Amino acid sequence: NAGVTQTPKFQVLKTGQSMTLQCAQDMNHNSMYWYRQDPGMGLRLIYYSASEGTTDKGEVPNGYNVSRLNKREFSLRLESAAPSQTSVYFCASSDRRHHTDTQYFGPGTRLTVL
Amino acid sequence: EDKVVQSPLSLVVHEGDTVTLNCSYEVTNFRSLLWYKQEKKAPTFLFMLTSSGIEKKSGRLSSILDKKELFSILNITATQTGDSAVYLCAVEEFNTGKLIFGQGTTLQVKP
Fold this sequence. Notes:
With about 110 residues, chain A is mostly beta strands.
């Protein structure tokens, strides 16, 4: 199993450009999450999707949009990138039907906005 | 506001030392506390703690939760250079499954 996959691994954008980060999981998980990680700040939740067809804001949603395309895929879009969005982005998924299940993380996308 | 605070933020030890990492939290709808290890890539799961006073152990790593005092500790005994990493503590919210992360503790183990 591939687990959680993310594309691209690296991306450089100019201010004002748009792009979509892709995430897919093959574990049949219901819930999916997007986090960003900045130096010294741990991971912060941007958006999450508790189940197919639903999305909700996390701690830092401004400047982002998401789409839960189907059960497997959850994309994150930056409509007009800003230097403050330079970060490492992680996608995660979990199956919350089981109390002992945890979140599994993808390899991350390193985004630089110039 | 919900928050998770880790201490220390960074730590340098020598191989063979024992370290204790701390995590305190204030989260309204607590479901579980998780520890992750991150080595320049995605966080990898170490422990999930839901009940007070029950130690979870995996090799040289162990962790325990105190739900009355709202903290957890992660112990690493006989440290090795391969233990060098950022250790993340996170609290899972009950209804949403959202994880609230602490800042992380950067551990460097010198030979």
